[in-house]
Design a protein that fits this description.
The protein has about 190 residues and is an all-alpha fold. The protein contains eight helices and no strands.
């Protein structure tokens, strides 16, 4: 098996993340559980959040933006010579769902939950550290890639504060995650 760009080398090849199902089981499941716990720990904060107001007031706009981004990704696949298969579409759906889970958990809810105890700056720093660390563990990312994920997370946290719009964060995350990992492990 060829060397992975994001993944740390493994002495035992069984530890490498080589399939879409492994990504789902290790990373998506972990992130989804964290997002769900964060939401249920403060359901009222989630429902009443100012960060959801732009999405709930203009859902059609976000649907069209999401559709345009997704069609652009399909265009990229075709431009690179890929025959569109169901695994490509499933990967795009996964990238969208992981973007939703990670932004709700690590940019929106976890800082809100922790800010009362630690203050907002410490809560944001811890939340983004945890975000990067989970990539290190669940996807076996190299340390430098986790540093970039941490810094990118801080940028997304800043974007959330300035826009008060979690849907924009999801779209930005979706866009950049596609260019970071455009294909599932089996197709790379």
């Amino acid at each position: 098996m060829r060397k992975r760009r994001l993944q740390r080398p493994a002495k035992d090849q069984n530890y490498l993340i080589n399939t879409f199902n492994q990504v789902l089981a290790r990373h998506f499941l972990t992130m989804s559980i964290i997002a769900t716990i964060c939401i249920f720990m403060s359901i009222e904060s989630f429902v009443d959040s100012i960060y959801l107001k732009p999405l709930t007031s203009s859902p059609v706009l976000y649907f069209f933006i999401l559709t345009a981004i997704s069609l652009f990704f399909i265009f990229i696949y075709l431009k690179r010579g890929y025959k569109i298969e169901s695994i490509h579409l499933a990967w795009l759906i996964y990238l969208l769902f992981i973007s939703v889970a990670e932004e709700i958990a690590f940019r929106m809810m976890l800082p809100i939950l922790l800010s009362g105890t630690f203050g907002m700056i410490s809560a944001v720093l811890f939340s983004n550290f945890l975000f990067a660390y989970i990539h290190y563990v669940t996807l076996r990312w190299k340390f430098i890639n986790c540093v970039v994920a941490f810094i990118g997370g801080l940028g997304l946290s800043r974007l959330l504060v300035s826009t008060e719009d979690v849907a924009i964060l999801v779209l930005v995350h979706y866009f950049f995650t596609f260019f970071n990992t455009p294909l599932p492990p089996e197709r790379r």
